[in-house]
From TrEMBL:
Name used for this protein in its record: DUF389 domain-containing protein
Source organism superkingdom: Bacteria
UniProt entry tagged with the keyword Lyase: no
InterPro entries from the UniProt entry: DUF389 (IPR005240)
This protein's UniProt keywords: Membrane, Transmembrane, Transmembrane helix
PANTHER family in the cross-refs: AT15442P-RELATED
Transmembrane segments: 116-135, 141-162, 174-194, 214-236, 243-265, 277-297
The organism of origin for this protein: Pseudonocardia eucalypti
Coiled coil: none
Length: 313
């Protein structure tokens, strides 16, 4: 279940209280008059089921409480309450299937920001993937796939496309367009150092039986990317984040990006081109599948407020 907290101007508090009191999926309604200092007003709290949270947030935004006050929502891991159990039973649907669009926009917007840490994680992942390819070590390549942070902007791009949020699309596109070339250039520079010290030679890339999936593009490349994108978005919307690890291991984005740099450095342009195609196929497949999952979600709605509100800073 979820904990809702609203800082409300006094003139709107009765409407907020009535809204939550009438909601079957709400429990433990609390009103603290005058408790809010900045912005000044009242504090209204309640426990919500995931199934009703999206509709409640939409109604609160209609009251402009996101502008005149503050709306916060957080996940409760444990709730021991008969009233909360009754609220859960009163709302149709399953909590795992509920999409909370405002939460999804905020999370995807936050994870799609281009930052030093994002660049560092992607670069380290590419370097690990390059070493895994050079040494023909699938274990190292899988480790690089888990470390890669690229699913964040890919998910944000899918959310932006479905909600027609240009800000999310631009932010995610910038993160992908800048981070991958930077990581690939750094990987190429490190590869040149490996070459200069004899750790990397052209013949090293002749026999890569264990990691040839990096540059071998086929129908399954797209199929795997589509399945991974769908699973990843389902994981985000249902709050089952543990499934994201499987998504990271499935998608050949980081290894393909790293191998483009390594193969180009050694003059293996055929494999560099194949790896680049593999990268594009995986990126496109993940975004398309993630967007389709959102589009056909049981909780799908085209709310103008969600489209216009901020995306996590």
């Amino acid at each position: 279940m979820l904990h809702l907290r609203v800082l409300s101007p006094p003139e709107l508090t009765d409407r907020v209280r009535g809204l939550l009191a009438a909601e079957p999926g709400s429990a433990h309604l609390t009103v603290l008059p005058g408790a809010a200092v900045a912005p000044p007003g009242d504090v209204v709290e309640a426990v919500l089921t995931r199934e009703c949270a999206d509709g409640v947030l939409a109604e609160l935004v209609e009251l402009r409480l996101d502008q005149l006050g503050v709306i916060t929502l957080e996940t409760l891991d444990t709730v021991l309450s008969d009233a909360a159990d009754r609220a859960e039973a009163a709302v149709p649907g399953d909590p795992a299937d509920a999409v909370i669009w405002d939460d999804l926009v905020a999370r995807s917007g936050e994870e799609s920001r281009l930052s030093i840490s994002f660049l560092a994680f992607l670069t380290i992942a590419c370097l690990l993937a390059a070493i895994g390819a050079i040494t023909d070590s699938p274990v190292t390549v899988v480790g690089a796939m888990v470390l890669g942070p690229e699913f964040g902007p890919l998910a944000a791009l899918a959310v932006g496309l479905v909600l027609r949020r240009g800000d999310l699309c631009r932010r995610a596109g910038l993160a992908l367009a800048v981070s991958f070339p930077v990581a690939m250039v750094i990987t190429g520079v490190v590869g040149a150092l490996f070459h200069a010290t004899g750790l990397l030679q052209r013949t090293t890339l002749d026999n890569l039986a264990q990691v040839d999936f990096i540059y071998k593009v086929g129908p399954f490349s797209l199929i795997i990317a589509l399945l991974a994108g769908a699973a990843g978005m389902l994981s985000l919307t249902s709050a089952k984040s543990g499934a994201l690890v499987g998504v990271f291991i499935s998608v050949t984005t980081v290894p393909a990006a790293a191998f483009v740099a390594v193969a180009a450095l050694e003059g293996r342009w055929d494999r560099a081109l194949a790896s680049a195609v593999q990268l594009l196929v995986n990126l496109a497949g993940v975004v398309v599948a993630a967007a389709l999952v959102l589009w056909f979600s049981p909780s799908a709605r085209s709310d103008r407020a969600v489209r216009k509100r901020g995306s996590g800073g």
